[in-house]
Amino acid sequence: MKNLIETIKNIWRIEELRNRILITLGLLLVYRIGSFIVLPGVDSKMMAASASGGGIAAILSIFTGGAFTRASIFALGIMPYISASIIMQLMGIAVPAVQKMQREESGRRKINQWTRYLTILICVFQAPGYIYTTIDAAARPEGQFWLFTSITILSASTLFVMWLGERITERGLGNGISLIIMIGIVAQLPQSFAQEVVGRIGPGGGGLVLLLVEVVLWVLIIAGCILLVQGTRRIPVQFA
């Protein structure tokens, strides 16, 4: 414990590293604040009541820190950008011209620009689907102007989240996109864990034994994932 405290003190003494930590925490704080800002005209109390039932929306909300079920301006999160990046990577495998561009610096810049354009296109298609399938009709206003405004806000917010991730990568610590996804999951983790415990201990939930079995399985799965990512195999090399 003493060594850990000393390591933290040493990290804080390095000015550049300290600035990067502060920038990372500040930008992540901006993202968390934005996830609580509800779309204009949406009844947040009614949304909270309709989202309490769980389901697939609750699962998707984990990756956005609760913004998905909250009808937040960051409801789409960073997922449209990730989808666009995956599409461009697949095109790099299937299309020789794109594969050639990936090897050149100017080509990679152009692919990054195309990825941003594709992100906007995905947002334009995803935003109406999110509005009509997730936001209860009684909780949102009607009218084409509100629909257009909401689509614009959701799309612009996704681009802003993408910009936050790029700034964290450039001026902060680690990969910004990964940190944004992680902070959303971590923010929902205590609530999700508490709900799971209450559900298991409650009537018809399986009891404490099933809860302990579930916790053991979680630990084993996490340990297996760490082994797959960090595991190495040492191959002896003999020189003639």
Question: What is the top-level CATH class?
Answer: Mainly Alpha
- Quick check: average pLDDT? 83
- Give me the secondary-structure category: mainly alpha
Would you count the extended β strands for me?
A: 0
| Beta-strand fraction estimate | under 5%
- Give me the CATH fold name: Preprotein translocase SecY subunit
Give the arrangement of secondary structure elements:
Elements: H1 2-13, H2 15-34, H3 44-51, H4 56-62, H5 79-94, H6 96-101, H7 105-134, H8 144-171, H9 176-201, H10 207-230
Describe this structure in words.
The chain has 240 residues and is an all-alpha fold. The chain has helices at 2-13, 15-34, 44-51, 56-62, 79-94, 96-101, 105-134, 144-171, 176-201, 207-230. The chain has a single domain (2-191), classed as SecY subunit domain (Preprotein translocase SecY subunit, Orthogonal Bundle). Helix 2 (15-34) crosses helix 9 and helix 8 crosses helix 9 (176-201). The protein is globular.
Compact description:
The chain has 240 residues and is mainly alpha-helical. Helix content is 74%, strand content 0%.
